[in-house]
Specification:
Elements: H1 14-20, H2 23-39, H3 43-57, H4 59-71, H5 77-97, H6 103-109, H7 111-115, H8 121-153, H9 158-169, H10 173-196, H11 200-216, H12 224-235, H13 241-273
Helix pairs in contact: 1-2, 2-10, 3-5, 3-8, 4-5, 4-9, 5-11, 6-10, 6-13, 8-12, 9-12, 10-11, 10-13, 12-13
Length: about 280
Amino acid sequence: MSDGHDGESTVPTSEDAASAGASSTDILARQIRSGLNELERPADGLLLSGLSAGLDIGFGPLFMGVVLTLTAGLYDHAVRTFLTANAYAIGFVFVILGRSELFTEHTTLAVLPVLDRRASLGALARLWSLVYVGNVVGASVFAVAMVWLAPAYGIVERSALVELAAPLLAHGPPEVFVGAILAGWLMGLLSWLVAGADSTLSRFAVVWLVTAAIGLAHLPHSIAGTAEVLGGVLVSDAYPLTAFLRFLVVATAGNVLGGTVFVALLKYGHVVRGGE
């Protein structure tokens, strides 16, 4: 990784930030340090942490299915949508506060050291690929287990799993791509806001607020969506496996663009070049 640290950082130190009262600069410095730490982790550690995150995030779709099953016929669509959006956030709380590796966080976090010339594109590609594979495998394993176990336990109806997948499969690739850009944008903002939070409670609130918003709007998140969509595909003849694969590819591309361009590049640019 020595080739990734040849450039000189253009970001002021945290002492500079403190003296200038520049909170955004301080957040950026923290993000870059955190990104460098992740980029330098061993490959097996990244892969296992990514696998853990993929498994953990599946609890969000599971609890969404539980909510849909328990509230069927009791509440109108608006109330059920609000309740499932809050259930969706649970998986992200487990992952982000548990400090597992989530791909959509790293579309912003791991890009910043590269922009600051302290890490290489090769190191970024290594981290992205390991974390992404771990996330997708973990979420897929959880989806398979959920489809088998949840109906058997009577906590989730198969129809609820189809209902979870339907909003994400109802649109064509252009709509999924744009929605995924927004989801990636929000996840990048989440990473930025968590870095600026000064307590576990405030981090919890930020994670819950942002991810519940993603769930409320049914924005495509490539990793959480893997558990949602694959679960529905596995129990329904209406959706072929290719529908899941198409969703995954398009959502991933949109998430990367949203996190990289709308957060990493813009935040880095306005802090370093714009002097806030």
